[in-house]
Structure prediction request, 304 residues.
Amino acid sequence: MKQIFNFIFYGFCTFAISACTAEEEELTSNNNSQEKMTVSFRVRAHGTSDQINKDNTHKEDFVDNIVLAGSSLATYDGAVATFNINSFIGKKNFFFVANLKQEDQTRIGAAGTESDFNALHLNTADYLRGYASNPPDKSIVMAATLRDVTVQGAVLSQEQVKLKRLFAKVNYDFTTGVFAGLTIQKITLENIPAKFAIGGPIDNYDLKNKKETANYPYLTYQLSNNKGTVYLPEHFVSNPAFRSPDAHGMTHFVITHLKRGVVETLKLRIGVSTPYSTSYGQIQRNKEITPIVTEDLNNNIWLN
Prediction:
């Protein structure tokens, strides 16, 4: 069954509160000296019907765990998550992340401010589907922000929480068109950023890689199929360009094939290819991308 992609997930937060104070700019924290309150978070998928853990085709709505920045998780039953946070009055911002490994859940739970939350970098290798020992249907990392939650009398107002994928969805098909007559030996993805940030894209990743290769490396990932879908982290480079001999640090497919008995390679860059767009060359979170392949009148294959 065909799914609607670029999923946005909704939840409703029901809170029980007790009196104390908190600064609006700070996230919830684990300061045991303050009185606590309970936060209950119910997750729904936004689509033709409310659902969670129902997308058995791509499993884009699966949520294995949820963590609230600056808070400890009390319970999660697959539909409702309950957190213990410092009580407050006034307004407060909440930052959620879903489908993290335990170590990263702990890091998020310890984030005391929004700046701390935004500064956290995660390892792509831990979350890239099918990479190394990761299962091919591994649940995708998602995040959401709930801002300016207010207290109304004895309870907090109900607010919608939107969870979005931190990875882009990339569709590829190397079985038809200009690829139909090729004997493909191998397909790899190269220049996958080995780090990604929860709070937003890491700008100029290619320059960071050149300056601090050990801290900002790239990954190479061999695909097992000539047609399919892969989910990739955001990637913003300093000087993106398509149809250039230089890859410009961009994430790209490398298709190794035989042509008249000779091994050749074709490269297909991944990113927004609309000229003059402010998103040009970018792989953006929660977007769906299908790389473009064209053939000119001289039978030259142009891979973006």
